[in-house]
Specification:
Blueprint lengths: L4 E3 L3 H12 L5 E3 L11 E4 L2 E4 L5 E2 L2 H9 L4 E2 L3 H4 L2 E5 L2 E4 L4 H6 L5 H8 L14 H9 L1 H16 L8 H4 L1 H10 L2 H8 L8 E4 L4 H7 L4 E3 L4 E7 L2 E6 L2 E5 L2 E3 L3 H7 L5 H7 L4 E11 L8 E3 L8 E5 L1 H4 L8 E8 L11 H16 L6 E12 L6 H13 L3 E3 L9 H21 L8
Parallel strand pairs: 1-2, 1-14, 2-10, 7-16, 14-20
Antiparallel strand pairs: 3-4, 5-9, 6-9, 7-8, 11-12, 12-13, 15-18, 15-19, 16-17, 17-18
Helix pairs in contact: 1-17, 6-7, 9-10, 12-13, 13-16
Bound molecules: flavin-adenine dinucleotide.
């Protein structure tokens, strides 16, 4: 019998495994794919490094602490590229203002849009747990800010639709500024930040390097999909492709829909609820192009422009991902706004992306490219999301020794997943050492 079995070798599962190992336990990780990483998917081919999943991670405290502990040297893009971002508006790439002076001087926002933004500190706060991101932003910052900044950003982070996403759960840090300070602008000035902070970070060899280092010395079985979990006398049996494993403690570090399937024998109806969590599809294309790329990080595209592309990153501006003299662009397609595209064949997507890139950047052809389809890429923290959080808590309370980690509880970024995995490790350790269960927090 194993002390702990962790299902899923993405950042969530590997963080739990690494921390348990450090505490002297010997966890087993089972992963259905032939490689670790999950949505951290670095393709290394000759001298090319293509991130077909997670592109980069913000250098926040916990992540940087791991980086130090793992003896890894983080790399960051040059400042002039990292701080230059564009939005594609009315058929043109427009540089986003990055300082208050630029904001006032640039024509990115209309005069009315600027005035509307400056009114924000005087708008009274509202406590409405069912408010969408769209309604929240329109109420506080105006429609122009929603259309030009928030909608494309929400697409960049969630590949999601701000009409459907909950302000309380999907942009919790920004909503918390209103709750705490009565105003986003006042709160941001007090805290000296609006969103998550940290330098854009990767590693020599791509982001997977981090998880490879973290997974060293951990017992991982690859290509072993977990199919079923059953319980008898507080002992769980996991039926996996490579055989049956028994344990008193299981950590589910898979996407929500896999957890839902795996939990069906333990909590049938509750596990079905988890399957209702929506996921946005995303297609990622890393392409080598002859044309030089504009200075900067990349661009986002608002819904009004009617493209299948959500945006693109100028990858070769950011990190050394291809030989000197070549250019790499990473393109994101689909999302909630164009779910239908996930059913198109690859050739049709590539053809349409080339047409759109020609319009936007004058790029007509790819020297070469790699393509990855994520049919269920990003969990959507929709209005009423608290019901899923309650379900998670109930499942854990009913099944002593089951712990759920992942990107659908306390935020969907790499950092959020890592931080939540750290919290879950403390709960697992309490259970292993003292038999205490701590359900997922709501
Ligand atoms: C295309 C894309 C781009 C992104 N870009 C960024 C970015 O630039 N920056 C950022 O911060 N975040 C980004 N994210 C989001 C973020 O990184 C992820 O939310 C985070 O990595 C999730 O990690 P995880 O370990 O919880 O889940 P995952 O990475 O999904 O890992 C879950 C693992 O479980 C395995 N698994 C599932 N079912 C089973 C089973 N039955 N048996 C065994 N194994 C199973 C899967 O194969 C997978 O390896 C991106 C996500 C995607 C999809």
């Amino acid at each position: 019998m194993r002390d702990v079995v962790i299902i899923g070798a993405g950042v969530s599962g590997l963080t739990v495994a690494y921390l348990l190992k450090k505490q002297g336990f010997d966890p087993l990780v089972i992963e259905k794919e032939p490689q670790i990483g999950g949505s951290t998917y670095t393709l290394r081919k000759n001298s090319y490094i293509m991130e077909l999943g997670v592109q980069s991670v913000l250098g926040q405290e916990e992540f940087m602490n791991f980086t130090k502990e793992l003896n890894l040297k983080p790399i960051h893009p040059p400042k002039e590229h990292a701080n230059t971002r564009y939005v594609y508006i009315n058929g043109k790439l427009k540089k986003m203002p990055s300082t208050p002076i630029e904001f006032l001087a640039s024509d990115f926002f209309s005069l009315w849009g600027k005035f509307r933004l400056l009114r924000e500190p005087f708008i009274p706060p509202k406590d409405d747990a069912r408010e969408s991101i769209s309604d929240f932003v329109k109420r506080r910052l105006g429609k122009e800010f929603l259309d030009k900044i928030v909608e494309p950003f929400v697409c960049g982070i969630y590949a999601g639709d701000p009409d459907e996403l909950s302000a309380k759960y999907a942009i919790r840090r920004v909503k918390a500024l209103e709750d705490e300070y009565g105003s986003i602008i006042k709160g941001a000035m007090k805290k000296k930040s609006l969103g998550p902070q940290g330098e854009i970070t990767s590693f020599e060899g791509g982001l997977l390097t981090f998880l490879e280092k973290m997974s060293q010395g951990i017992d991982i079985t690859l290509e072993s999909v977990a199919l079923k979990i059953t319980k008898k006398d507080d002992v769980y049996t996991i039926d996996a492709k490579n055989g049956k494993i028994q344990t008193k403690c299981v950590v589910l570090a898979t996407p929500a829909y896999s957890a839902s399937y795996l939990l069906r024998n333990l909590s049938w109806s509750m596990s079905q609820d988890l399957d209702d969590i929506q996921h946005a599809p995303v297609m990622v294309i890393s392409a080598i192009v002859k044309e030089s790329l504009p200075k900067g990080f990349g661009f986002l595209i608002p819904k009004a422009e009617n493209t299948i592309m959500l945006g693109a990153l100028f990858s070769s501006n950011l990190f050394r991902v291809c030989p000197e003299g070549q250019n790499m662009i990473t393109i994101y397609v689909g999302g909630q706004r164009r779910k239908d595209v996930a059913d198109w064949p690859e050739e049709k997507i590539i053809q349409k992306v080339k047409e759109e890139l020609n319009e936007i950047l004058g790029i007509k052809a790819f020297v070469s490219y790699e393509f990855k389809k994520w049919k269920k890429a990003i969990p959507q923290y929709t209005i009423g999301y608290e019901k899923y959080l309650q379900t998670l808590k109930d499942i854990e309370n009913m099944n002593k020794g089951v712990f759920i980690a992942g990107n659908y509880v306390e935020g969907n970024s790499f950092n959020d997943s890592l931080r939540y995995a750290m919290k879950r490790t403390s709960d697992v350790l309490k259970f292993l050492k003292e038999g205490v269960i701590h359900g997922a927090q709501v």
